[in-house]
Amino acid sequence: MDSLGMTGNGNMNGQKSGLHESEVIEADRESGYFSRGAGSISPASDRQREEPSEIFVPSEQKAVVTPCMGKNLNLTVQTIGVDEPGPGEVLLRIHYTGICRSDATFSVGPKKGYPSHNHIAGHEGIGEVVKAHDPALLGKLFGLRYLGSSCGSCTYCLRNLPTSCPKQSNAPKQIQGTFQQYARVPLDALVALPETIMNGDIDPAWYASALCSGSTALVSLRAAKLQPGDIAIVVGIAGAIGHLTGMIAKNVLRVKVIGIDLGSKIGDLMSVHHDFADVLLEAPSPHDDQLWSKFHADLLETCVQLRGGHGVERAAEAVIVTSSELSGFQRLEEYICDGGTIVCAG
């Protein structure tokens, strides 16, 4: 990430640094790590190679930093040093990083476990290893997400709930965040990515969302155990997690999707919702019994229509709540049929 800049899709985007025509691996005898160096190679017929002319990694970088945590956001772009990786760590050059709403939450306080000064947020990063103790890692592509690592042996990990592990490490809590050009990261906190995503037809910046909102959406849908043709209600469909939940449900799982959100948000989506929802409904106040009764009747009628009038009249097979509003978590049992599933994402 050669420059820190915002793109229209909400990602911190920097163009990938161009490597020299040929590359060599240079070992630092004192520190014991390997770095990706740059040199030039003569034509193959000469079978000669020039010695490395420079170290590829700079000593300084640009980063978005919170100098001092407080009640309000206090983000500044600063020039800071580039850290050297220690044992079990690598230095990752960040090519793309998403911006999550949680990053704003992580940058005020500080909350327990977060640094009070010089905090660097960001947990949706895609980058390339440029320094490592193992030279085989150089050039490999990895993702850095919020859950860096967990113990794997506690009761939560054994029940496939690693996000509740008391010994977990997180970005940007114990691990440096991705709002910088180079991040020093424990190797066990990284997710290996196929290098083909950097050369495909899809802008790699889009993959950054898969490391947070996308993975949350996928885990929620797996918990719902939906079958093709089932109906899923997504509460909070206008948000990032809700939007991706509906998109995966409809286009991958072949589930019928009813999206629910506040009227102020639904109105803007009416003409563009077909990729992530079959029907959009405005959320009523759960405390107004008259409005709720009308909404519930409309919801049941929508379910009947989506099923083509076939089968027993019933509500949805699952409701997935991705909303950040307390009202979104109320009266959920009335969204689903007997045997249905309630999933609360977050």
TrEMBL record:
PANTHER family, per database record: ALCOHOL DEHYDROGENASE 1-RELATED, DEHYDROGENASE FAMILY OXIDOREDUCTASE, PUTATIVE (JCVI)-RELATED
Protein name: Alcohol dehydrogenase-like N-terminal domain-containing protein
Keyword Oxidoreductase: yes
Record region (Disordered): 1-20, 31-54
The keyword Disulfide bond is annotated on this UniProt entry: no
Needed cofactors: Zn(2+)
GO cellular component: cytoplasm
Domain Alcohol dehydrogenase-like N-terminal: 86-195
Gene Ontology molecular-function annotations: alcohol dehydrogenase (NAD+) activity; metal ion binding
Organism: Aspergillus kawachii
Pfam families xrefs: ADH_N
Keyword annotations from UniProtKB, A to Z: Metal-binding, Oxidoreductase, Zinc
Record-stated family: Belongs to the zinc-containing alcohol dehydrogenase family.
Superkingdom, natural source: Eukaryota
InterPro entries: ADH-like_N, GroES-like_sf, NAD(P)-bd_dom_sf
